[in-house]
Design brief:
The protein is mostly helical. The protein folds into 2 domains: 1-95, no CATH class; 96-170, no CATH class. It is built from 9 helices and no strands. Helix 6 runs antiparallel to helix 8.
Amino acid sequence: MESLGLDVENLILKIYSHFSISAKRREELKSFYDFVNCEWRELIRHVGTRWLSLNPCIERILQSYLALCSYFLSLENCPLHIKRLLKIETNSDSVPGEIEIYLLFCNHILNVFQETIKVLECNETTSLDIFTIMTELKKKITSRMENRFYGFETKQKLKQLNSEIQTKLH
């Protein structure tokens, strides 16, 4: 995750923090959910020491992506750290498409890990199964890298970007 062009974990922490300290901000955000015709969903808190909470947080941000982007773009004084993380340019009316692609990519890859973790945590899993399970995880990740497959949604969103950005992200 460190080699991505976006600090996903920091973005999630900053977005959650922005709304967790203010009921007024949450109410304003709710109006943006209505504006983009999206069902209200409470943001999930990511615990930095528990990396397993990262993917549910990413999923929730993706479910709320349009509302969140609209909210932050509408702020006259968007917090600088969020503005930088979302790569919002001054007087811009959109968040660069690559931000959503990074989130979709992380969601896709983290789902692979979470599936493996569920199998490892299963009561029927024995120590003899661990090698097979971990080998299977390695195959899945290697296959995705070799085939450049990072999820259907990620691929579709990537096609919508100009070729220069596509090359940069591939």
